[in-house]
Each structure stands twice: as structure tokens, then as C-alpha cells.
Amino acid sequence: MPRAWLRHACRSQQRKLMSATTDGMEEIVKEFLAESAEGLDLLDRDLVELERDPTSRERLAEIFRAVHTIKGSSGMLGYSKLESVAHAGECLLGQLRDGKLALNPALTSALLAMVDALRGLLNMIERTGSEGSNDCSAVVQLLEDLPGGSSTPRVTVSSGVGRDVGAENPLGEKSAAGTTIRVDVGLIDRMMDLAGELVLARNQTLRFTSLQTDHAILNAAQRLKRITTDMQEAVMKARLQPMGSVWNQFPRLARDLASSGGKQITVEMEGSEIELDRGMIEAIKDPLTHILRNAIDHGIETPEQRARAAKPAVGRLRFCAFHREGRVHVEISDDGAGINPARVRQCALERGLITAEQAAGMGEQQLANLVFAPGFSTAEKVTNVSGRGVGLDVVKINIEKIGGIVDLQSVTGQGTTVHIRIPLTLAILPALIVSSAGQRFAIPQVNVVEVVRLEATSGGMPIEQVCRAPVYRLRERLLPLCFLDRELHLGGKIPSDSYIAVLQAGTGRLGLVVDAVSDTEEIVVKPLGQQLRAISCYAGAAILGDGQVVLILDVAGLAQRTGVVTDARRQPPNLEVATKSGGDWGAQSWLVFWGTAGSRFALPLSAVARLEEIPAERIERSAGREVVQCRGEIMPLLRVSRLFHEPEQDRELLQVAVLHESGVTAGLVLDLIEDIVEETVELRGELRSDLLQGSAVIRERVADVINVKEVLARVTGPPPAEQWPGACKT
Amino acid sequence: MSADCRFCTFYLDRLWFGIAAERVQEVISSPAITPVPLAPRAVAGLINLRGQIVTVIDLPRRLGIGHRGRTPPAIVVVRSENALVGLLVEQVDEVLEVLENTSEAAPNNLPVESRELVAAVCKLPRRLLHLLDLDKALGDDSREVRTGKGVK
Q1: Residues 6+ apart with CB under 8 A from A83
Q2: Against a cut of 0.90, is the pTM above it?
Q3: Which residues of A touch B46 (CB under 8 A)?
């Protein structure tokens, strides 16, 4: 196999070259290029920020420093064009810093042009190794021709001052650089792959050792387990990048787009520090850029239009990122014209995306979400920014490809919010293993809301039909069902007992009927081969601890196949909500349930690991507490009725919410579950017990919000007494 | 003689096939295959090859020839563009070196399914070796995927 050998030989040659760092010049240039590119990205952002707040001396100093560094390094490496452009820019910046000039749009544009020129030169050096023959004198001229440009004697003075300032800084930067190193991305990816393999090997080992009784082996296995988990976490952390690394270029992009469209825009960002897996950052870069282009091109109006609508002339574009429920949420909201549902309907009809009947049955938000349909574009004129009929559909496809969900809310005349939810990482995720017709499948845990057991024999709720579509009454709401065996043509017979995995697909829910639910397992997601990628039901495949391959179900794909349309809940674009979401109480999912004495409670769903129904006879007692055996563990039970001194009701089947927080697990016995509600709540009212965080209005009725931490403390704390301290009778 | 003319040979329903030996990574015997519901008919499933998930193509089905189903199948793992793909075959035979002038294009009377996959036929003493066009055999048969999905 000579070709393979050759390839191998080439690769090892490359490796040798890479490790031969003694030939330092190439390395230095590489380093210089990487650092300068980063510096320029920051410059883009800083310059736009500076334009908004021209008095910020700090920012100005930072810009000055960055340009100065590039100038210094390029001079040292003998890149004279780079040096001359940076020098011209530095002179201008020096005057700005000394207050001899005031920033105006023309100046900003000139400085941005300088950044572009620098970037062009750096790219040229990266590609060809030299600055090339491009003429940069035009940019230098532009910078020098501005009032107070560099040809006056004052300038030499100010650039001299600049040199002094700059000279201090490289030292300061170096001390910071001592704690960080640059690592080749390929190496990190390789480490990630290896960590994935290690997880598999650990799972296999644990499976073997679970049959052992030798303490030494068990201890070693436990250590392996812990170290692998830590290792995996550490490698994942190494791959994290802050959201800012994508966002930093947005203010500049927005400025360019806005000025070419005769619009005025401020860009606000919150959550730049939120970190995401490198793969994710790469994957959301283009979609986010596209949404930004769309918002500016189609969303935000011209100042005249805005004036007519009694809005401030300057449009707002807001990027907001935050963690919630194990996912990263990104919201892009604008206060533009919003999406006109009538126009969307007309457009979708014209393009044959929907039928007239379908259109008649669609709500405003559903119509608005049609902009994600392939081949949809409402732009009346095609601009060079966006509106070529490709775009938002690609955004949706790309987001969904990485396991994300995108939807959109729009209020005509007030603005649009695009909401993206993405998993933290691409590579390793907890999954629920289910089986159907003898075959196992994995469902990503993030999609699983709860698991309901369907008992054919003991008089539980049966499956009902609506126009021959199977549904299940879950807490008095109809849940559309999908039988996995039928959907995948597995052709097994339906067993007497089965389970419904309630899955979140976009904003809709879907009940997946399976034969059995086994375990949750951490799986390493591997992509499917090209022969299988066209099947929308699978998100990939994984190897379980026993070495068997399972398919990972793509919940969004399944929902689409079964026609469970995602209906966006009616919500105004939450510019304002997002502003507040820095706190803990933004839109959050709540488990709402009733106490026996008519009081209504809410639990943050993030603290609920799962919901179970436990027959009363399974309750045992241990150390004065009620406990129940659950998945091989002993789980303490707490009754809401006892915690809040409400009359107890004897039930044969107990509804239990399994709470899990900071390593403590306990079952909370509830009386009657109302629903799971996603809502932004505001806590108010005084506390009638330390077990409560306060009261809130959820679905227009008052509910007491349970303090999970305090409740769980009852499990770890002293054994139960007759009267709980701190709780008073209601 | 260039290495391109070495072929890894195997049997399918008593027919003798060869694929370019340089593309073959290894041969494994009957591992557990996880079926993929809704997959194109030619996909047999997925196997775990030392931690790597490899798609296995049911070669007899791809060629439109029946399974004999007697001998436990073997899997020939071949390198595709950037992934490994397994080929389900019945029985692996020797690696042969074939002289270029012994082969000619496949005759026109082949069954439809085989016609585009059999690149050439080698006239060896007493028997004919069917040379497979590996890339076509591995290519995704997107028509099948789509019909397999049962679009709603």
C-alpha cells in the first residue's frame, strides 16, 4: 500500500518540522500573526465602542496600545508596510488620546480602514510569507490627510509619548502571558477524542468490575472512574472559548451594515464571558452572523421610519447569552419592525411552502417561524446584505445540526427575538437508554422531560385517539404520542407494559412510547457515515459500556416526522425580560403542584431529576425516615404535606419528584401535579417558612416557590422531629 | 507490477469478487451488527471497530444478488474518503496480483444493480474475477434513503 505509506511518511515529516522549534524565525512570525489577528479583532470592537463613548480614556489607551504593539513587532520583523500603516494610525490615536482631536465618524472610518489594511497585510504574510505588492499608501494618505494628521511636528512629539506608554505595556502583557500557552487546536481535539475513548474504556471496566468482590479491584475501579470524569472535564474546559470570541466582531459588522443601509444601531452584549465548546463556537458563528445581518437588513428601520413610529432614531440590537437547564441560551433581539405575519403568509403561499388551509390554522408566531422554512425570503428588494432566499433556513439547519433549537418571537412594530438553545458540548452527553422491539436507543437527556409508565393492567390512563392519532392525557393535557417501534418499522409486538418518554422538541412536547427504559449513561457522540446522514431520526451513534453500538435518536427529527408541530408560546419579544435575566428568575421551567389543603406550590424544574410514581407499599423506614429503594439506591422521601403541615391523604400511588442538588438526592412526595410551566416569575410576599423562597404568580395564580436547598437539608440534617422548626401551621 | 493491481478477493453467492487491496484495512469475522431502522436497504448496520463506529454495507444486497446465508459473514473493512466502511461478504479468499491485460470491461448483459458497480472482469484461468468499483459500491444511494424514510 504505497500511497498510504507515503501519506504516513509525509505526516511524520510534518510532525518533525513542527517540533523543530529551534529554527525560531518561522515560529516567531506565526506567533506574531496569531497575536496581531487577535489584537485586530479586539480593535474592531473597541473602535466601535469608542465611537459610542468617545470620552473613554481607558478604551482609547487600549486601542493605542494594540496599534503600538503591532507597529513595534512589525518594525522588528522588518514588515515596513505594516509598520507605516500602524504608524499613521498611531499618530492619529495619539492626538485623540491627548485631546488634540475629537472623534468623529470620518475619523472612526479611517481608523477602521487602517484595521482592514493591517488585516489584509497580515493575511498576505500568512499566505505568502511576505507583505506582497499591495499598495497601502492610500490608507496611510487617508490617515495623514485627516485634520491633525501625522505630517506636522506635533505628531512626532505625540508618537514619542506613545512610544513611552507602549514601552511599559509589553512588560505588563508578558507577565500575564506567563500563565497561558498557545496550543494547537488539533492537539486539543485529539485529547478530546482520547478522553472519549477513555470514558468508553472506563464504562467497560466498571461493567466488569461490578461483578467482582475484591476490594482492591473495586477501589481501583472507583478511582479510575473519578479520574476519568475529572480528566474529561478538564479536557472539555480546555476546549472552551468565551462567546465573546464570536461576538467581538459584531459591533464592527453591525456598524458597517447599518451605515451602508442608512440606519443607526447600537449593539449591546451581555454574557460575552459565557463559555462554549470550541466546536460549538465554530458552528454558531455563521448562524449568528446571519441573524445579525437579517436583523439589520429586515428588522431595524431607517431613522425616518422609526421617527414615524415614535421610536428613538437609533435601533437597538441585543445579544444575550446565559446558562439555563444545562444548555446555553443565546437571544438576539432587535427593536425593529418585527415580522409582518400577513406578508409572511402571503409569501409562504406564493412559494408553495404551505397550503391555504394550513395558513388559516396558523397563529401569528407559527407564521413568523415560517421564515426558517427552506427557500423563504420576504425581502422586497434583494440587497447585498441579505435577502437572497437562502439564510434563515440554513441558520436553522446549522443550529439543529449541533443539537440546538432555534425559534423566533416577533411582535409587529416592536421587534423580533431569535432564541437559540444549544447544548454545552458536542462530544459527550448524558443520554437515556431506552429499548423498543429488542433494540436499544439513546435519547439525549436534555430532551427528556420525564418518563411515565404505562400500565395496561392496573387501570392507569389508557392511550386515546384523536382522529386516529394516539394521545395520552398527561395531567389533563393531551400529549401527542409516537410509537418508536412503528415509527422505525421495527415490527415487534406491543408488550403489556410500556413507557412514555416525554420529550421536549423545540417548544413542543412529544411522548415517545418505548418498551423499556434502562439507564442513563454518558455517551460519546459519533457522527453517522454518509450513507445514513439523510435519515432525520438519528443524531449519531454511540458505543455503550458493553461495547454495543446504539443509535442516538434525534428528537427534533422524530417530532418532525410525526408532525408534532412546534408551537411557539405567545410571548412578546423579550428585550426587557432579557435585560433582567442576569438574575436567577428569568423564564424558567417550573413544576407546579397542589398541596392537600388547597395550597399551590412550584418547584424549579432544574432541581427535579425525574418524576416517578411509587406504590405506597414500597415505602420502607430507615433511621426514622421514610425511604424507598430506587435504581439500586436508598432514596429518602419527604412529604410535602408533612413539611407544610397539611392533612395527609392516603394514596396507593405516590407522585414523587426526585430532587437532586449538590450531591443530595431525595424524593418529594406531592399530592397532585398540575403541569410543567415555563414562565418568568417574580418572587414576592413574605416567607411563611424557611422551606419557601417566596410566592409568585404562575399561570395567573399564586404558587409558593419551594426552596430546594432547605428541603434537601432536611434529609442531611437531624432526623425528623414532631414539629419542624421554622415551619408554622397554615 | 503496481500495487494497484493487487486485489483482495471474496465470494458472494458463488461469484468471485475483487477489490483494490490497497483500500482494505482489515478483515473481521462476524461481529455484532446493530441494525439501523429506516436505513437504505443496502446498509446492514453499524459495528464497533475498536471504539470506532463503522457503517457496514450489505454487499450482496447492494449488488442485487441473494444471500446464501450459510456461511457466517465476514466484514472487509475498507478505507473510504475520510471514514472506514465495512463490506459484508460471504467468504474471504486470497490476495491476488492481476495482470492488466487479462481484464476487460464488464459485458452489457449484467443485471441493472450490478452493472454500474462491476468495473471490469478479469479472465483468470478457469474462473472470472469481478472487479468492484469500490467508490460506487460505497456511494450513498440517496434515492433509497428518501423512499426508506416514508415521507409523511
Answers
A1: A71, A74, A75
A2: no
A3: 528, 541, 549, 551
